[in-house]
Every structure is written in C-alpha cells, then in structure tokens.
Amino acid sequence: MTDLFEPATFGKLQLANRIVMAPLTRNRAGAGQAPGELNAVYYGQRASAGLIVSEGTQPSAVGQGYLDTPGIHSPEQVEGWRLVGDAVHAGGGQIVVQLMHAGRIAHPDNKAGLETIAPSAIAAPGQIVTPTGQQDYVLPRALATDELPGIVADYVHAARNAIAAGLDGVELHSANGYLLHQFLGDTSNARTDAYGGSPLNRARFVIEVATAVAEAIGADRVGIRISPAHGIQGIDEKDATDVAATYGALVDGLAPLCLAYLHVLGDPRSDLVRDLRKRFGGPLIVNDGFRSLTDLETAQQFLAEDLGEAVAVGRLFLANPDLPARWRTGAELNEPVQATFYGGDERGYTDYPALTD
Ligand SMILES: Cc1cc2nc3c(=O)[nH]c(=O)nc-3n(C[C@H](O)[C@H](O)[C@H](O)COP(=O)(O)O)c2cc1C
Are 5 and 18 in contact (CB under 8 A)? Predict the structure, then answer.
C-alpha cells in the first residue's frame, strides 16, 4: 500500500512525498504581473510539498483572466519566477508553473483593455471581478484557424521561460473552464474547422499544445490538468458518452508523449477517471474538487485504494505552510480563511503560522 509520505518519480520530477500543493490563484502578483518577494516567501514556506503546482499563470498578456494574476511571458516575469523557484529549491522542494490561458473567463478591464478570445463567440455565464466591481463576462472573439499556431507558440514560449527561470516544469491547465477546456467542451466550442465538432476534433488543440510544449522542454517536465464532467464555468459536460469519447481521445493523444503526469480534478473512483488513468499509463495526481476539503483521511484513502500516485491538496495547504509535517505528526491545523483567498497583501497569505513559529 502506497503511503502519502513515500517518495515518487514523475518524469524528471522527484517528489519527496505524495502530497502535492494544488494550483491556487491568489491574485497577488506585483507590477507588470510579475511575482515578487512576497510570492517567493509564500511558495518557499510550502517547499515541503512533494511538488508545488503554482497558481494559474498566463502564457501571454491576452491570456490573463483575473486581476493581478502572474504571467510568464515577459523578462520581468521570468526574473520574478526565478525568485520563487530559488525559494522553493532552497527549502528542498520542486515547483512547476501552471500555464493558464483564461480564454473567455476574462474581462478587458483586468488586462489593460486587451480583447477576450475563445474557440467560439459564446460568452461564459455569470460575472467576473474587475477593478470597478462585478461585471458580466464579455462576448469573446472566436479565434481564426490560422491564429491557433500563434497560441501554441505562446505556450511554448512560456514553457521555455519556466525552464529559463529555473522552475522544474509546467502544468498545462486544461481544466475548470479556461481556454484549453473551452476547446474540449461542446457548449463552449461550436467550431466548424478541424478543432470543433467530433470529440477528436475538440481534443485536437489541447493535444497540439501538449505536443509542442513537450518537444520544447521535454515531456518529462510537463504535466496536464483536466476536470472532466465537473460542470464548471458554463462547461457542463452532462452527456456522459460525449465526455468519455472526448477525454478518451484526449488521453489517447497524450499517452504517446509520455508526459510527467496527468492531474485530474474529479471523482477518482468514477469509471471515467479509472479509464482515463489506464489509457494515460503514467502517474496520476488526484483531487476530488471543491465540494469537500481534501483532508488527511481523504488523501490517505485515495492512495490506500490505489486511485492515483499522489494527491493534490488546495485549501489546507494554503492555510498550513508545513502541511506534510502536520499530517505526519497529527498536529492541529490552521483553518483556511476564505475572505483572503483572492487578492490582498501578506495577511491570509504568508502569515499562516508554521508549527515551529
Ligand atoms: C483560492 C483557490 C484558487 C484556486 N486556483 C486554481 C488555479 O489557479 N488553477 C487550478 O487548476 N485550480 C485552482 N483551484 C482549485 C484547486 O486546485 C483544488 O482543486 C480545489 O481547491 C479543491 O481541492 P481542496 O479541497 O484540497 O481545496 C483553486 C482553488 C482555490 C480554493
């Protein structure tokens, strides 16, 4: 039986334990959307994770969705990520940056007036926080077929920047309703070219991005996150047959690349996730979503049932910089404070105490 505290190897990534810090958007990037000292302290505090997956990070300026999220496309941002990587490595940890192009989950007011682009001109339901308060999502402009290689190139550029900054790799964010997921979803993708229609066509863009990024920095430094059938941000995925076909096509396209890992947000006990794991053939990081908090018992149980090779932990890692030590010793936990999740300063960010404080 695999234990949470056993080491693991995922491609080039050497995990000291199987507790992965889940990607957590915190909206605290500095000037020029670059990480700064405060962000380096935050990630450095959490270096005892087997692997840190960074907050969603835009591969291009137009790929920004929310306020104050970091990018990894400018030289200034690369230098900011170097601070973060150095802090994590100094603590003996490893960090991959999550590349998140937000697509239609965006607003021009959050990114200096830049337009919103997506697979199709279909607005996301709901609203987004902007500097002037909540606003409806705007109608995105549908990307032309001949623009897609440019988006792939942005991912490749960002991935190369991650390596240049000294980070350990990248995770492609193809979950939770952002650009790559918008290609997969049949309610967000109404394209009539080779990137829309059939399940394989909807999976095509994600496979192309993964292939190009793997070629650029090595597949053993690339992971990917998906959230099949999670029903999020207007991508409902209610047709189980279509979901199985779409994600089956995706994972069959990814399997030959031998990526470092697959990261699934969703029920790891479902037939769907079990099937995807088998077809992927490499390490699986599990996380069963927002509805319940990933606690020690849940995480241990996932590994005891052999549902994956590691468990991603979000909110409890946010609130407990030394979570693996606390779980190992049965120490008390700090409670996550929702009011300071998104945006603000060091409060609710770097001031959660460690056991040794
Ligand atoms: C504040 C916050 C920010 C998040 N940001 C991201 C993100 O940038 N990328 C992503 O893939 N998931 C994101 N998630 C989802 C988490 O990675 C994780 O799947 C979720 O919190 C459920 O795990 P938990 O129960 O361990 O918290 C976020 C969740 C929270 C609470």
Answer: yes
